[in-house]
């Protein structure tokens, strides 16, 4: 059995249902300024320039809930 261990430089992936998402880095005061990202219509993803989180538009994996600030 093989399991893939995430590398330290792999982005955190968050699945979203919407075409837009707000990212504040999480972690309250130690996050970053809130930025609003729009999902690319070809890749169905958006990357945060501050924290490198990758948002992937996939309503099934997102649970069909609207995207909130992460």
Write up this protein.
6% of the residues lie in helices and 27% in strands. It has 70 residues and is mainly β. The strands form two sheets. Strands 1-5-4 form a three-stranded mixed beta sheet. It has a two-stranded antiparallel ribbon with strand order 2-3. A hairpin with a 6-residue loop joins strand 4 (45-47) and strand 5 (54-57). It starts with 12 loop residues before the first strand and ends in an 8-residue tail after the last helix.
Which key features would you list for this structure?
two-stranded antiparallel ribbon; 70 residues; 6% helix
Short summary of the structure?
This protein is mainly beta. The protein is built from one helix and five strands, in the order βββββα.
SSE blueprint:
Blueprint (H helix, E strand, L loop, with lengths): L12 E4 L3 E4 L11 E4 L6 E3 L6 E4 L1 H4 L8
Parallel strand pairs: 1-5
Antiparallel strand pairs: 2-3, 4-5
């Amino acid at each position: 059995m093989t399991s893939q261990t995430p590398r330290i430089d792999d982005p955190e992936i968050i699945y979203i249902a919407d075409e837009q998402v707000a990212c504040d880095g999480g972690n309250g005061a130690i996050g970053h300024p809130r930025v609003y990202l729009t999902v690319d219509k070809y890749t169905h993803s958006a990357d945060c320039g501050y924290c490198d989180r990758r948002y992937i538009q996939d309503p099934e994996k997102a649970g069909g809930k609207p995207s909130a600030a992460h």
